[in-house]
Design a protein that fits this description.
The chain is α/β, with parallel strands linked by helices. It has ten helices and 13 strands. It has a five-stranded mixed sheet, sandwiched between helices. The protein has a five-stranded mixed sheet with strand order 7-6-8-5-9, with helices on both faces. Strand 6 (about 120-125), helix 5 and strand 7 form a beta-alpha-beta unit. The N and C termini lie far apart (about 60 Å).
Amino acid sequence: MQIVIGTRGSKLAVAQAEYVKNCLKEKYPEDSFSLKLIKTKGDLVQDRSLSVIGGKGVFVREIERQLLEGEIQLAVHSMKDMPGEIPKGLVFAKAWGREDPRDVLVLREAHALEELRRGAKIATGSRRRGIQLKMLRPDLEIVDIRGNVETRLAKMKEQQLDGIVLAAAGLNRLGKSDLVTQYLTPEQMVPAPAQGILGIELRGDRKELLRKVNALSDENTDKILRAERCFVREMGGDCSLPIGAYASLLPEGGISLLAAFGREDSESLLRVQTVGKEPEEAAELAVQRMKEHCARAAAVE
């Protein structure tokens, strides 16, 4: 079997795709695996925010087109970049093991969030991160930034910014975890849904390939992914809405879900925490409570 794996061309995207290729190659030495780098709208348009140019889908539409047309057989994404719904005819393999899901601060001079000077400039391209930073430190100035990890790090130095927020998973996969100044707990900053999880996508009719990819999956991570993605789908958080979700398995069984959500004009995020026997139960309960909170907040206004 000859398998072409599609990926974006950033160092992180390639590192993730290489990881998947090498795992599959080791498991199935009789098959042939290669990478194909694909440019997406999200890569080509760097001077406008994601909400303006089309939301999360701008990173994946061209890759998904090539999947559907058979130009590639697998695609590797950061699952946090994936919309809640994918095109008809495509499916995700079950989730493999999760990298560190936390967000981190990379600071130029300070050693912790608490040590930042008043009015410090912190960069992020994520409204979820920006709002939660302001909830922790209302005095901070949030600077919008786009680009891959290397571009963001370079901009921090060039623009003399005080720091940036990045995903621990990305830095770990690039071998740059030494750059982390401070890890933010999920309670301080609820991560993006599925942060740290790879999305391995393929056509639904490739049953044998799906079986092979799923043989490397992790059941616990897949449960966590189901809870976080279910919350996103039910809340309709595909585009510009700031949304976070962090699920964890409980020692006694069941699953806990910490969720955060805000409207387009939000200056703060509403949070709920739920427990369910199954991932979907925890997610649906979180959606119910979140919608009740949103209704009460709207009534007050």
